[in-house]
Amino acid sequence: MKKDKMPPLGHLHMEHVLQAVGVLEAVILRSFGPEGGQVLFTRDTGQVLLSRSGTRILTALHLEHPFARMVVECVWKHSSATGDGSKTFILLLASLLRLIHAAASKGSNVSHSYSSTKAAEAATARHLADKLLAFGLKELDELIATGVVPYGGCISWEDFTVEAQTSSLTNNLCVQKLLRSFFHTRCGYTHCDFSSHLTCELLSHWNFKNQLPSFSLQLVSDYFPALHTPVSGFPVRSSRLIEGQVIHRDFATPPLKTDHQPVKAVVLTGSLQPTLLSTGDVLELGYRGRMKEERSILHFSSWMESSLQGVIAKLQTLGVCVLLSAVKQSAAVLALATQAEMCLVECVSEDELSLFSQLSGTTPIWDCSMIESEHVATLAFCRPIQLGAHRYVHVAFQDSEDRITIKPCSLIICAPGEGQIEQYACALQDAIRMLLRTWEPMLAAATTTSKSTLQSHKGASLHTDSLTEQTPYRSIAIQPIQKPGCVLSAGGLFELLLHYALLQHGHSCSVSPDLNIDASVSQLLANALLSVPQKIYSHKNTISPIQVEGPLGDGKLSLHCCREGDKLSKVSELDLGLESVSCKYQLLLAVLQCVASLLKVDAVLPTHTDQEQIKCHENKGIKMLL
Amino acid sequence: MALNGDEEDFKWEPPTEAEMKVIQARRERQDKISKLMGDYLLKGYKMLGEACEVCGTILLQDKQQKNYCVSCQELDSDIDKDNPALNAQAALSQVRERQLAAQSPAPSQAPELNDSPSSSQENMSVPQPRPEHCEGAAAGGRTPLPPPAVPPPSTPASTAALAPARPSVTPQSSAQRLVLQEAEEAVLTKLRWATNQLQSSASLEASIQLCSLINSCANSLRSLKELTQ
């Protein structure tokens, strides 16, 4: 039985972390960038999945190494919050760790408090990581606001219908353009236009007029599993929107014959037939009082049925003809419902029921004997719909002024194969999450250390208070730090601009002696950021560094690309797509936090729980007894 | 804090060019290892939480539960190229290093000899282990190539040098001087022969062995000359 040696404190720790993250980087590097490749996954069952999503690739790997698993978990959490940027996460993480390692081995001294150089290195690295995180939480958003945001633009939420024109003269920043670049990197070039158009249509239907855009985005994002129906076997272009909601179950009783309006429905969370008897109960039939008749089980069951009939009769008086049940109903209920010409849908999932309740404005009921008019929903229709190989229930809600003023619709996603459907559905969900992040007023995720962000989000107040603590040379910004809807040209521009801003910050910091550490930290971060554009442009052999012109007021961006071998040809307004600034900022913060937590680990203790070891111990025990 | 630190303890100097090359080579090797491991992970291998005992690389496990170390089993070892037994280039470079090292302490040994006859024994014994340390030469010495009498002339020369070392203070007898002269002549002939062979030699191994022979002959001559002084 091989015994694992626990590595001594600090020894081999950084190398292991670097190696684990380096391997993950090598895995995702080939899929990175707009020209990255896709990974084909095959399961043992023969199912095939194509993906370019970094999260999907990383979570599909078999990893038992603790650092690798930690990193993948961080990536997964980040991706479920922002919907994008998992490959960039790994790239930034790897380059940051390498630079920290280089800085730590350069600057570590064999001081007396540490037993070896390795331990001193580890301590230096940890200290650097903590400083980086503090810097990121405190000062990064200001730098972004002053150094990056002026080069970008703001998308207005109402621009759904503005089609992105292909002529290079008009460079409207619109939601569609942002979505198109997202789908381009995620699903490929073929259907990115179509997908972005479809998503915009969906969002325009769900647009609440008197609410913030983040409200409707949050709603769509939360209910997305209930809002989309995957249909395999059709080309992607047959995906469309349909009004109302599709419930992913079939009718348990024959559907409604007459299509009269309005259709009334009730949502049941419990069984109609009350379960008076459960296993283990004993039913005592016998004489009671002065009754001389014999009681038998038949009497009991007929009594049950009559009570059930009463419930159904009550429903009929309320005009209910559709029952949506969360649980499976008994055969008696089915029979009675068929007789009463009510249609019943069983085993509807919880999120679909909650969406239904939200859209219809009713509450589900547990005990049908207490049913009232507030539990009855009014529908425009309720009929079966055949989508692909399955038959579902299609409901549409009746418009009512006192309720929500939107026309809800569902998405039908078509794709030739199961794997592709999953890919598109995930891409759509992530796109919505990304949009939500772009428009969401940033939460005080920067905890207590950053007063400035909190102040800027509470209102348009100036964050002068927090600034007076810091050095006076920094200028006071009048506007709030992150405007919602702020976007920037994609393709590594964010990293380049932030790199220069950080370098400038570092230079200005090195003037004052007490901020010397800040200078080195910003220098480190600046160098780490360069790795992302490097990797993007290493694919393209002809285009080398981009020169960026000064900030332009109307959001237009003109980039000069130097082509090797050519003269300096001015390629104005290169269509690199758009990306969201707040998503990038969140990504940076998440990377810094991951680095800090990785380097905080002192020792790794292996705990084995496999059966072989237990048997081995048992054998040893037996030997000792003998 | 280590970062702000006491710089009087340790001054970081930028690495020399040789060190930079080593660092660069190591980094490239690490990149290669990472890429290979990434490919294996995408093929379905599992990344274990253990590291290889030999090289410290993270271990992979395939579907048949077999452990696999990428750097040991696939890439050429980092240190193999420095092992003279496996690499002729390394052997030649080691010979050159030994020659350089032999030339520099030799002048320092001569005054020591004159100072203390008791320490002359240790100084006499120093030339002897050196040829054996050079593995390439030792490997060459084992082959039945250039005269099998290669080790013997050096050893009798040094033993002959050792033997008269003790009574070096007393004036040497003529018999001893004759023995020394004969030994000198034998060594000189061998030296001459080896030089001729070296000039016409085409094989690398043979040249290495001849160089080591010349080296040992030179050492023996030097010690003989010091004895006769």
Automatic annotation (TrEMBL), chain A:
Annotated keywords: ATP-binding, Chaperone, Nucleotide-binding
Pfam families in the cross-refs: Cpn60_TCP1
Gene3D superfamilies: GroEL, GroEL-like equatorial domain, TCP-1-like chaperonin intermediate domain
Family annotation (InterPro entries): BBS10, Chaperone_TCP-1, Cpn60/GroEL/TCP-1, GroEL-like_apical_dom_sf, GROEL-like_equatorial_sf, TCP-1-like_intermed_sf
GO term, biological process aspect, one: chaperone-mediated protein complex assembly
Gene Ontology terms for molecular function: ATP binding; ATP-dependent protein folding chaperone
SUPFAM superfamilies from the UniProt entry: GroEL apical domain-like, GroEL equatorial domain-like
Origin: domain of life: Eukaryota
Family from the record: Belongs to the TCP-1 chaperonin family.
Official protein name in the record: Bardet-Biedl syndrome 10 protein homolog
Lineage, broadest ranks: Eukaryota, Metazoa, Chordata, Craniata, Vertebrata
UniProtKB/TrEMBL annotation, chain B:
Biased composition (Pro residues): 144-155
Tree of life domain: Eukaryota
Segments of this protein annotated with the region Disordered: 92-176
Coiled-coil intervals: none
Low complexity composition bias: residue spans: 101-111, 156-168
A Pfam cross-reference name: Auto_anti-p27
InterPro entries per the UniProt record, alphabetical: SSSCA1, UPF0148_domain
Biased composition (Polar residues): 115-126
Name this polypeptide is given: Zinc ribbon domain containing 2
Species of the source: Neolamprologus brichardi
